[in-house]
Design goal:
Layout: E1 7-15, E2 28-36, H1 39-53, E3 72-79
Antiparallel strand pairs: 1-2, 1-3
């Protein structure tokens, strides 16, 4: 029984709420690492973490705009192997 190898993926995610007549929002960047089997799984993990962090943002005020999956963009997802060193 073979196990899939988990890898660390570096993620660069941006969140851009929809601007309204009353307010304009800038893009909020997030960087982090996700441990997953493949890049697709790492992206989904990153998106869900960001969505969970904006749970209380329901659009009830200007300072708490509604954040949905449509407002989140994964700019970069690549294997994060910088911390692995090879001896020569």
């Amino acid at each position: 029984m073979g196990k899939s190898q988990l890898k660390a993926y570096a993620l660069h995610i941006s969140v851009k709420p929809t601007s309204t007549n009353f307010s304009k929002y800038s893009t909020m960047p997030f960087k982090g690492i996700a441990i997953a089997k493949n890049p697709t799984e790492a992206k989904e993990l990153g998106i869900s973490i960001v969505l969970n962090s904006f749970d209380g943002y329901d659009g009830s005020s200007i300072s708490r705009p509604l954040i949905t999956r449509d407002h989140i963009t994964v700019k970069e997802c690549k294997v994060y192997a910088d911390f692995i060193t090879q001896s020569k």
